[in-house]
Design brief:
globular, single chain, di-copper center containing domain from catechol oxidase, 8-stranded antiparallel β-sheet, 2 domains, 488 residues, alpha+beta
Amino acid sequence: MVTAMPPGGVTPVPFECPPDAVPVERRLWSQIDPSRPKDRKLIQQLKAAYCELRSRDYTDPTSLYFQARLHGWYCAHQDIHRTWAFLPWHRGFIYFHEQILAATKAVNHDPDFRLPVWDWERSSKIPRAFQELGLPDFLTGSYARTSTPIRSPITNCIQQAWLMSERFEDFCGYQSCTSGDSECLPHSAGGPHSIIHSLVVSGAMAEPHTSAADPTFYGHHANVDRFWAHWLKRYAFDTGKDLPAGWGAQTYYFYNPEGKLVQVTADQLLNHRKLGYDYTLPGVKLCDTNARVISIAATTAASLGASLRETLLALAMGGFQLTHTAVVETMKFWAGLLKGKINLGSLLDPTCWMSIPVHITAVLPTKYVVAGKEKFLKAGKYYVVQLSIPGATDYAIGGFGIFMAPHHLHQVDSIQVAITACVDTKVASALVGDLPRLKDWQLVYRESPDGLKVVGERHVIVNASVKMFCPKGWIEKGSDLIKTLHSG
């Protein structure tokens, strides 16, 4: 068995950022056109380079096999997806992988070569070059990718729910995350990151041990890195100011194109431009928001509907005390605004009001009993999250993927998941018109093979934190309008 953990007795080479590096853009797959000679060359280089990495001996640290093992060791055994190491470690891993590709015979240190980015927010279809490459021969077993194209649930609102937070720890994580604590899981490890792994690609990509054996992994994580660059710039952490104590001193180990062990610290990975590459940043707008949190526990789960309604009102109204009639009128006004039936002109930014982003961190049991039989959550699968009225209507609001190895999942009693979701006009209208049944609302999850239809048992979430975001513009610019609306 080849181990990818840092070997004992080997002195690593200290990493130094390339001197006077001129950043070269990592191209987006949506902008690559095989009919253009330059783009055709890039695709040919990439495919030939991966073929070369596949052919190398398993013990070669630059082989695709060894790279996959390295990722598996850090992500499955060191569990970095649960800590603040998740984003900087993957940035370093993708950077050195790009360097290894550039040093192959096919690329031959071409100074313009950079790893293309799978911008799955534009198209969830696996890029053709990765489809043609397929999976390496050393993957044996049922590791095939999703056989049919998936309609991606990664909407603009889902991206906002994933990214919105000006607290570093919310998106990037804490130094450690203890089991059962739903508040410490980094948002970045959930949302679109896990959706691509477990739903859109699946197969080898759905498990930490094997995901980096699929070349699709590298285009995917280049995009996660691109979104991190966007987040760092939006919330002004890209300069290194106000970072948590100890974050920059984290130490990681990678292998350079010569197969030598390299020691890198997180602070060396903060500025991607210093590493010699750049991005066209994502276009999703991260609005200034107010946020409210609902804590769901077993004793309070029955009041979920009323809590959601109260929270939405508190966000939309800025804490105004209204009569019952005024509350109903306000909810109708709010729903009409979302549906576009009420036009406030320049009062509010429509990109921040099509849906309300929601982020849920939940603790879920890994096993349960159905009809006397013990069953388990399924590793590598995607689950749709619904607001449900038993016996009536289920409103799909988001979902999550379980990016874990099955044997690891079965060794624990519970797992933490980061869920990105959106409250849209249907839910808003239901909160307005279904007051008698608010006490019946539940937050549930069910397995989904395609992100749309659901299969298997429904499970109620009874341990979670639900964070809802509302643009500050409503309160700052709309308060006089709302007061006028209810002045009578």
